[in-house]
């Protein structure tokens, strides 16, 4: 990837296959993201899996990892989740991007817990604007995050998805501005392949 001028990587373990109940890594793969981070950092020191590789050189990858303000679905607790997040940092991760959340207080509380645990790298909040009524059930089920009651009620009032989209945009704009006011310098938006509402939000925020 370096020869393509790709220098920033976000290392993710990956999701569970839909017809399976637990994650199963590929042969010689990693069962957790911290192992992948460690492997990438080894490349930065010129250490390759193929020890007989000729003309190997050190890479210069900057590695980011994911985190979950409301804990990963497979973690028994948020504290245990942060314990393993610390391992990712120890193995060389330089920044964190969070899973989507819809209540900024959950992000602020998560950051506070990370700082108490000695995690000092930047933590980038991940935001996703609601776009359809179907997402009221889909997002909590698939991503294991809570939706604020106020947002749910506003979406329920909508008569069509065009109105839902406007509610989602407004909610995300307010989230973004509150995060900026709190001193958060970088925001990440999950577009899910549809960028028009993200462009609208960005035009109002930046």
Can you tell me the CATH architecture of the largest domain? Alpha-Beta Barrel
Measured on Cα atoms, how large is the radius of gyration? Answer: 19 Å
User: What do the pLDDT scores average to?
Assistant: 85
Strand adjacency order, main sheet: 1-2-3-4-5
- Give the overall shape: elongated
- In helices, the fraction of residues equals 40-55%
Which consecutive residue ranges, at least 5 long each, have pLDDT under 50? Answer: none
Q: What's the count of strands? A: 5
Helical run tally = 7
Strand content: 5-15%
Question: How would you describe what is shown here?
Answer:
The chain is of the alpha/beta class. It has two domains: 1-126, Alpha-Beta Barrel (TIM Barrel); 128-206, no CATH class. The chain has seven helices and five strands; from the N terminus they run E-H-E-H-E-H-E-H-H-H-E-H. Helix 1 runs parallel beside helix 2, helix 5 runs antiparallel to helix 6 (161-181) and helix 6 runs parallel beside helix 7 (196-205).
Provide a compact summary of the structure.
Helices cover 42% and strands 11% of the residues. The protein has seven helices and five strands. Strand 1, helix 1 and strand 2 form a beta-alpha-beta unit.
